[in-house]
Amino acid sequence: MRAVVSRFAFSDSNGTDSHLARFLHARIFHTFSDSQTHCPRLLIMSILNSVLRRQPDLTSSAFLVIAFLTGIAGALQLPTLSLFLSTEVKVNPLMVGLYYTGSAVIGIVVSQMLATRSDKQGDRKRLILHCCILGALGCMLYAWNRNYFILLIVGVILSSFGSTANPQLFALAREHADRTGREAAMFSSVMRAQISLSWVIGPPVAFALALGFGFPVMYLTAAVVFLLCDLSAPLDAEIGLANRHDVDITASEFCLHRYVDL
C-alpha cells in the first residue's frame, strides 16, 4: 500500500509534481508512523479533515469583506468630522470639542450595552445587520441635517450603533474560528489587516468626496457601504447562536479594546 500511495502522492494525472499530492503523502506516512493505525477508513477521514481545514470557505471570505467595508464606512466619516462641524454646521471650536467628548461617552455606553447583551443572549449576526442599517440611517442624517443638537444626540447614537458592528464582527469571527478549527489568532490578525487597509484607503477618498462633491455625497457613500455590509453577509446563522461561554474573548472585551486603542 505504501508503494501505491507513494506513486500517487508524487505524480498527478500529467506525471508532474503536485503540492497537494506532496501534502497527502506526508500526511499518510505521518498517520502510519504516529497513530499506528492501518484502518483505511480512519486514514481517509484523517486526510480529508486535514485538507478541508486548509480550504477557504464562503463564510471566512464574508468576514474579511465585511471587516473591510465596516472599516471603510468609519474611515469615510471620522477624518472629516471636525471639518464638517466647522464648515457645514458652523459651530465654534469649543462646540466641536464638546461634540467629540459627547460622541466618545455615548459611543462607549451604547457599545458596552449591546456587547453585554449579545454576550449573554443575543444573535451576533442579526445584531451586526441591524447595526449596519442604523449606521446607514445615521449617515443619511448627517447628509441632510445641520442642527448641532440633533446631530449630537440622534446622530451620535445612530453612529454608535454602526460602530458596534465592528467589535461584534470580531467576536463572531472568533466563534467561527473555534467552531471550524481554524487558528483564531491568525484569523483575527487577517481581519485587523483589512481594517488597517480600509483606513489607508478611506480618509483620502473621504476628503476627495467632501471637497469635490460635498458632504452629502460623502455621507451617502458611507451609507451605501453600510448597506453593502448587509448584502454581503452570508454568515452562518448557527455561529451567531453559538454558546457565548465557549468563546475566550467576548464582544464586550473587543469594544473595550477598540476604545482603548483609539
Compact description:
With 262 residues, the protein is an all-alpha fold. It is 80% helix and 0% strand. The protein is globular.
Give a structural overview.
The chain has 262 residues and is mainly alpha-helical. It folds into two domains: 2-53, no CATH class; 58-261, Growth Hormone, Chain: A (Up-down Bundle), CATH 1.20.1250.20. Helices cover 80% and strands 0% of the residues. The protein has helices at 2-9, 19-34, 40-53, 58-77, 81-89, 93-120, 124-144, 148-180, 184-212, 215-231, 237-240, 251-261. Helix 8 (148-180) runs antiparallel to helix 9. The longest helix has 33 residues, at 148-180. The model is unreliable at 1-21, 31-38 and 236-262 (pLDDT under 50).
The CATH architecture category of the largest domain equals Up-down Bundle
Question: What is the averaged pLDDT score?
Answer: 75
Number of domains: 2
Cα Rg: 24 Å
The N- to C-terminal Cα distance equals: 59 Å
Structural class category: mainly alpha
Helix fraction, binned, reads: over 70%
Mass-distribution shape: globular
Relative strand content? under 5%
**How is the main sheet built?**
none
Unreliably modeled segments: 1-21, 31-38, 236-262
CATH superfamily of the largest domain: MFS general substrate transporter like domains
The name of the CATH topology of the largest domain is Growth Hormone, Chain: A
Order of helices and strands: HHHHHHHHHHHH
Q: Tell me the total number of β-strands.
A: 0
- Given the structure, what is the number of helices? 12
Instruction: Return the CATH class of the largest domain.
Output: Mainly Alpha
